[in-house]
Every structure is written in structure tokens, then in C-alpha cells.
Amino acid sequence: MRMDDAGAAEDAATTDVKARCLSWIDRNRDEAARLNDALFYFGEPSLEEYETAKLLCRVLSEAGFSVETGISGFPTAFLATIGEGAPVIALHAEYDGNPDNSQESGVTEPRPIVEGAPGHAEGHQANATVMVTAALAVAEAIKRGEVRGTLKVFGAPGEEIAASRPYFVRDGYFDDVDLALHNHIRGSFYTEVGQTQISAISAEFTFSGESAHAGLNPWDGRDALDAVVLMDMGLAQHREHMKPDMRAHRVITDGGQQPNVIPARAAVWWYFRGFSAADARALFEQACRIADGAALMTRTSVSVEIKSAVWPTRCNTVLADVLQANILSVGMPDWTEEEQAFARRLQEAAGVPAPGLDTAPKPMLGPDMPEPSSNDCGDISWVVPMGRFWFPGGVPHVRFHHWSGGAMLATSITHKGIVAGAKVLAGAICDCLADPALLNRVRTTFRAEIAGVEYAPLIPLQGTPRLGVHARLMERFRPEMAKHYRTELPRFR
Fold this sequence. Notes:
alpha+beta; Aminopeptidase; seven-stranded mixed sheet; four-stranded antiparallel sheet; globular
């Protein structure tokens, strides 16, 4: 057989494998919808995703994956592996909700499933569903011997507080990975190249003083809340000197118990963001100096705990091309008029432009200025080549972390978007497993893209992650939320 004939035969074989993977996804579209809906109604916030992780691990284990739970000290994290040898491809996605984001799906008005409870209003449950559905489809090809290599599926809890993936990197889970792929829901269908998000450091500052009666002898007190307020004022003054792409925002996590007792303890939780890891670190270090000054002025002491810290997110050129080609091949879902009408009603109710659902994929974005958000996948993208795409399970212009962001997440709009996203992800995996030359281009471009940058974790090199951020919240709401759990669970086949 001539070389060109051999290449054509190999291309045809790859096309056949992809076709079978996409056909498997079509056959299991109802099971993917059931998985999505089960995760949606769990509604668990960061680091409390116990039911979510349990179901995802069960599905992967039943499909033949070897599942390791609790990686890097996160009880709701996991690593599921199938196949052997090179190349090693990692998939990673999140599945956490947010506090006070409970929202019934399929309605175009604010209607919590459980009043005041956490829930999904950014669609992270769909992210996990796309990742797992694609992994199951490719696993069938691996088990049939149609492709060779190793597929690693990482469950990454706590994305909303940028918690887990820097620890995965620090602990060596990506040391043998050749490339990584990530997916996220949005109202559009596209991929991106270059730096797409910025760096962030999340830290809590705890001030300690001495209590006193605020009416009888306030002069004997050392007010820790005063220190929190002064730190806030100091950072407000520093904003004049921050670069335009820097951000600093906070919540007071402990402000005392009652007004007539001077607080001996107070705490504030800050996020510091910058274009680069160095910028985020510089802003954090200035905040530490301001905190020291606030402690000095109030005769208190201050301790600092880094909760999480992430590098900017960047996307590899070659992987972006691969993902874009698969997006164009799969195409936008075929929306019904009822789905379009629902989207327009939801957009109007949310007070945003109301053109309805996108009917075609977007062009590739970047390289351009990144958006001023952060994702804990960023660290991965500096140690291995990473590609990310956005799949159309949401409604354009509708905002995340708002009731309207949850209103479509268990409807046919998200279900169709999940199928499209899983097909793109599965197709990209097949391309990378089947083509050594493609992998070489990925490696070569990645080395050029990060040339001159030395990665070092922003999180502490020792120590364990901070857990239990929302434990009390779930103690309060889980019993009522559990009444809404789906009883019909997925059975992929």
C-alpha cells in the first residue's frame, strides 16, 4: 500500500470511530438529560457536592473506569481512568452551584425550588454532564480497541471559589498528561485561543483584638472589626494605583455578634485578580501590607489564610483549531419555535436583549484581552496544553449567578446543548488519540506559547485545602432540597 493510501485509510478509520462515538451519544441523549437533571436538582454548592460526585463516579465506574475519590484532600473530587499507554488525555470539569441560586427550571420568573437555598444558575451541572457523556462515548472505542491511549476524567469541585485544580497540579496528577480539554456552558457555541481569563488569589484576613463593653468601657477594647473597616478603606484608596485589569472584592465573614460587645475577632474574605500571576501576587502582597497597617492602627493582630490561588487561563492554538473544526462539523442544535419563544421571554424577563437563541456557531475568539474572570483550570493550562470550548446550553445575554441563569438548565435547550457539546468533546478526543502528528504540533506550539514563563503554584506548596465553606448552609437546606431529587437516574448503554 502506498503512503498516501495508508494515510487515507487511517483518516477513514478515524472518521468511522468518531461517527460511532457520535452515534453512541445520540442513542444516549435521554440518559445524558437524566444525568443533567439529577445534578441540577442536587444543587450543591462548592465543596458540598457529595451527591453529585457520588452519581458521577457511579456512572463512570459502571462504564469500566477505575475511579479514585477524594484526590488532593477534596472529598468531592475524583479521578476516573480508562485505557493504557500514551497519549494521556485529561478531561476536567466542575459541578458546583452557588448560595441563594435555587431556581425552578422551565419558568421565566424568579421561582426558587427551595427559598434561600443554593442551586445552579451557571450550568456547572451541564459541564459535568458533557464531560462524562463524551468520556463514556470514547471509552467504548477504547474498549473495542479502535483507539489507543489513556483517558483521565477529573471531577473538579469548588470552581466557584477557585478551589481544586491548582491542588491537582501541585500534587502531580497532571505530570504524565499530554493534553487537557475543558468545556463550559454558555448561550453560544465557540472556542478560544490565547489568554482568556486572569489570575486570582482568594484569601481571608482574620483580625484578633480584645472585647469590652461598648457602652461602659470601650477604651479597654481592641476592635477587630475596626481593623476590617480600615483595611477596606486602605484598599479603596489603593484602587487609584491598580492597573485597569486588576480587581479586588470582598465579603465580611465575621463582624462580631452584637453591637454592645466590641468584637475581639473579625474576618474578611478578599479576591485579588490581575492579568498575570505576578500581578495578582503583587496586589495580594499590597493588601497584606494594608492589613498590617490596619492592625497597627487598632492595636490588633492579623493572620492571613490563602484559600485558593489560580493562574490565568490560556488555550493552545492547535487544540483551538481542533475544537473549532468539531464545532463546525457538529453545528448548532436545531431549535424549535417553542424553545426560541421561551428564550425570548426569559431574555425579556431578565431585562437583556431578546434575540432568542443563536442559530449558528461563533467564530473562534482571540487572541485578545481576556475577560476579568478567573477559573481554577488556569494552572492546568500552564503545565500542559489545554483547549476549552463553550457549548450552547444556555440562553444568550442571560447572566450567570442570577435567577434567569438557572431557568433553562433542566429544559430541552440545555439537553440539546449537552448533546452538541459532548459530540464536540468526543470528536476532539478521537482526533488527538488517532493522530501522533497532531500531538506533536500541540506540544511544539505549547512550548512556544509559554516560552519565558516559569510556572510555580500560587497556592501554598504544603498544607491541605480549606473545606467546609458551605457546610452549615447545607446542614440547613439539604433536607428540604432532598425532597426534589430526581428518582429516575441515568443508565447509559
